[in-house]
Amino acid sequence: MFTFTLRRLILTIPTLLFISFVIFMIVKLSPSDPTGNLPLTIPPEVREQIREALGANDSLLVQYGRWLEQFFWIEPRVYLSNTFGWDLGTEGEIRLLSYQTRSPVMDLIMQRMPQTLSVVGVAYLVGIAIALPIGVISAYKQYSVFDQIGTFVSMVGFSVPPFFSGVVVIVLFSVLIPSDSFWWLPSVYDTTHEVTDWESFKYQFRQMIMPVMVLALQITAQISRFTRASMLDNLNQDYVRTARAKGVRERSVVLLHVLRNSMIPVVTVIALGIPSIFGGAIITEQVFKVNGLGQLLIIAIQGGDVPTVQTLTFIFAILIVLFNLIADILYGILDPRIRYD
Amino acid sequence: MPDGALPVLDVKDLKTVFKTRSGEVHAVNSVSFDVKPGELLGVVGESGSGKSVTMMSLIGLLPSPPADVKQGEVLFDGQDLLKINARDLRHVRGGKIGFVFQDPMTSLNPVFNVGYQLMEPLRLHMGMTKAQARIRAKELLELVGIPDAERRLKDFPHQFSGGMRQRVMIAIALACDPQVLIADEPTTALDVTIQAQIIELIKELREKLGMAIIWITHDLGVIAGIADRVMVMYGGQVVEQAPVRELFTNPQHPYTRALLQTIPSVRGARAEKLNVIEGQPPILGAAPAACPFRDRCAYRFDRCDRENPLRRDVSPHHDAACHYDFTKGGAHGV
């Protein structure tokens, strides 16, 4: 297992280099000007100097090399020295700047990360927590009323896009319900809100309910269907009959023997879904005005902010590659039949 | 064969029905039989004759729905297994009645090691601690002839060969010293040499441990070698039941006769064609009102269409369910 992991980790280096090159070049091909966001009063000569200073006039390969250096060498060191107060000689090094805000791209990302992680991350956890029992019970009581309802809810979750369900819950909980009611929920997520005491925690909780609900519906739909299918695959296996013939309690038969087998593919799917948490739920974040990573990406695309788009996309790519590897390793841990060495 | 002893398992008038979308299927129709302590009862019949379903009905192993054990009595250890509560039945299952299934490749849980699966019934029914169960599990593996038992407890099923897995299954079934071992085609999925080994093993274990065995198979050759008594099933009912020698020398039911004729012989002239029983076994949509074998029977006459024959004694230990009397060469009671 260890050699397998090591081999795979080493293999990710060329993969990521290739991905980074493709991402860099594709985004670079877009006709965007680093000075496009600046006031029109700035004369063309000055604009040219700004472009020169940003290195936008160098050859693409040179720019790519610099970007890689900033991404893999400068930014991590800056991060480390900022967090731990070490002096890693980063003073005066040129950081990767956003065209739009002129501030380092990594700082933007670090500012946005907590919102995305709390909202989308919580939604993911809530979704899994709801989906697993639904999937297990639906499969065990196949075609029962519970299963039918579960199937219906999943179909809704699959087919209703968040820009619709988001607006529906806003209309329901923020518009139709009067704002002095207990059930009223804020439709705009206040990012500046800080949790200091019980009251502020309650407000934070309330403002998270709607975005989490909308996202969790989708996640629940996917994972519960997947769990159900996987459970159904296993419930009719011979080993289940053996377990019953051994006199194992029915609950242990289902929750130990069957679930343990069924979780193998489900855990893999859950692991593969984790990068999408970091990717943020682009649409849901827009609907509820959560200024997370998804929203940052949208703004960066709209503003022609090439470095931010490149960096965000590449970070998502790294996470996807990484969690693919993690899913593979989990598979090997959960299923004793799979040995990678 | 112990004679006259009280049966360890006594099944009376068992009826099992499956409810399907296209109506009911009567899989087991008034099956009665018993097994004496230490006896090996062979159950033969072609696929779909209700052999496995009968045995699974006894100990509540059929999923319900669709299966429904409609009537009958299963007397074991002084109680009716069809009436006792789920908890007590669980302790009988895997405790006093062991079960070995057909396909050892899929009958073990792939994600638990063999030790865990072997220790599970020990801890459930015998109240053993983990440490005690481990010692017993090792003994059991040695008992069924698995070398290096201590180490192999930690292995997973996929690390065992088919024959070895079946040995593990047998060890699991024997874990709690059962009084009855039900072996549902335990050698069908194995190749011939392994088959012989498993048969030898079960013979040996039976001598050592003295439990009764119900051996379900469609291989008459196997039955001839190991059974004390044989029960032939067809269409969800018992059509003939006799001590093994008697059954092979003096079959009294046309189905048994036909079955025996399908065995190719290595002696004498080489057969041009293998004997077969023409037709298919019936799928019974209702409790049979006529003989289920009549469509394939060479001795069929008008009474067979009107009346399902009851089992009648041919000799003290031999009974058959047929209107035709082979000793006399004509219908019974005429």
How would you describe this protein?
The complex is a heterodimer of chains A (341) and B (334). Chain A is mainly alpha-helical and 341 residues long. In chain A, 73% of the residues lie in helices and 0% in strands. Chain A is globular, with a radius of gyration of 24 Å. Chain B is α/β, with parallel strands linked by helices. Chain B is built from 11 helices and 14 strands. In chain B, β9 and β10 form a beta hairpin. The longest helix of chain B is centred in the middle third of the chain and has 18 residues, at 192-209. The radius of gyration of chain B is 21 Å and the shape is globular. The A-B interface holds A 237-239, 241-250, 257, 260-261, 264, 334-337 and B 59, 61, 86, 90-95, 99, 101, 103, 106-113, 117, 120-121, 124-125, 156, 158, 169, 172-173.
How would the blueprint of this fold be written?
The complex is a heterodimer of chains A (341) and B (334).
Chain A: H1 2-29, H2 44-54, H3 60-84, H4 105-140, H5 145-159, H6 162-176, H7 198-235, H8 238-245, H9 250-278, H10 282-287, H11 293-302, H12 306-334
Helix pairs in contact in A: 1-12, 4-5, 4-7, 4-9, 5-7, 6-7, 7-9, 8-9, 9-12, 11-12
Chain B: E1 9-20, E2 23-35, E3 40-44, H1 51-58, E4 67-76, E5 79-80, H2 86-92, E6 97-100, H3 114-125, H4 130-143, H5 149-152, H6 162-174, E7 180-184, H7 192-209, E8 212-217, H8 220-226, E9 229-234, E10 237-243, H9 244-249, H10 254-261, H11 302-306, E11 312-315, E12 318-320, E13 324-325, E14 330-331
Parallel strand pairs in B: 3-8, 3-9, 6-7, 7-8
Antiparallel strand pairs in B: 1-2, 1-4, 4-5, 9-10, 10-12, 11-12, 13-14
Descriptive keywords:
heterodimer; A: 341 residues; mainly alpha; globular; B: 334 residues; alpha/beta; eight-stranded mixed beta sheet; four-stranded antiparallel beta sheet; 11 helices; 14 strands
